[in-house]
Amino acid sequence: MIRVQNVYYMLAYAFQVLHEQGYKNVATEEFDNVAELLSAILCRGVSVQIKRGLIRQYISREEALASPRGKLEIGESIKTQVIRKKQLVCNYDEFSVDAYPNRIIKTTMDLLLRGSISKARKKEIRKLMIFFDGISILDIHSINWDIQYDRNNQTYRMLIAVCRFVIKGLLQTTADGSTKIMDYADDQTMAKLYEKFILGYYQREHPELKAYSPQIAWQVTDGYRTLLPTMQSDIVITNKAAKKTLIIDAKYYTHNMQMKAPYMTQTLHSGNLYQIFTYVKNWSAAPDEVVSGMLLYAGTDDAIQPNNDYQMSGNQISVKTLDMDCDFSKIAAQLDSIADRIK
């Protein structure tokens, strides 16, 4: 389990902008569920963005106008018979606040208003919605999350990430079309956040180390890699001075152990173990570089949690559990102790 309050810290490290002053007061509040927490974060972020100014983009418009502008669509004007009304169909670009990122934010806030969050939070959202007057609402099932960020809209990165987290992980549409907010996000959504949180933590708190997520090339003897699957690491921490590298594969499951027949004994997930072993053995190590691997599971309510170190073919492979149901200072201490392994 993960404490609701710790989801804030996970977001803070995964998307570094939460360390800004505008968000910090969220960390001192108490929340009953993740939906309430995300609503608070979104409200803080949108408030800050409104003060900065909502972005504007050129939006293509096509409509019948009495005073023509832009490109005249004569064929469409004749087809729709708007000429009888002394109008012409015009196609023009308008520099508008109805930009796509603003549409995503308004759509998310509109959904939260129909969900089961507190009245006080809904009141806060309604006040913010006033500033989104004239902005369109999107179909949540067809939102394009592939937004290109630049210096003009960089501040939207965190806001859109929270919106995606809400829509993908917390909101479900019921049979009658109403919106229901789950108490917790689905495993896939949380797994991605868990991975980004660990990487972001090491990047921010351990600048003396290099933390990144590179692809690992297959160490084939004939150079032929066609059809081989991509090995995308979650987190790699390198200490160049000590010539040590730790490859971490972050795992977020409901159950961290698997049951094996016929006696229903609990064992480690074999596929995960094969995966991290393969990553370690294919790492292009420098001379005298010590490479190790770790499966880092988020703690669950199960009685047995992985906590072992193994020596395999000259490399240490560890299987550890990160307890997320505790004060964040203890979580940080656990992550720091992992970093100490390569110092």
UniProtKB/TrEMBL annotation:
Transmembrane segments: none
Domain of life: Bacteria
InterPro entries for this protein: McrC, McrC_bac
NCBIfam families for this protein: PRK09736.1 (NF007277)
Name the record gives this protein: 5-methylcytosine-specific restriction endonuclease system specificity protein McrC
Molecular function per GO: endonuclease activity; hydrolase activity
Pfam families cross-referenced by the UniProt entry: McrBC
Organism of provenance: Ruthenibacterium intestinale
UniProt keyword list: Endonuclease, Hydrolase, Nuclease
EC number assigned by the record: 3.1.21.-
Keyword Nuclease (UniProt): yes
Keyword Oxidoreductase part of the UniProt annotation: no
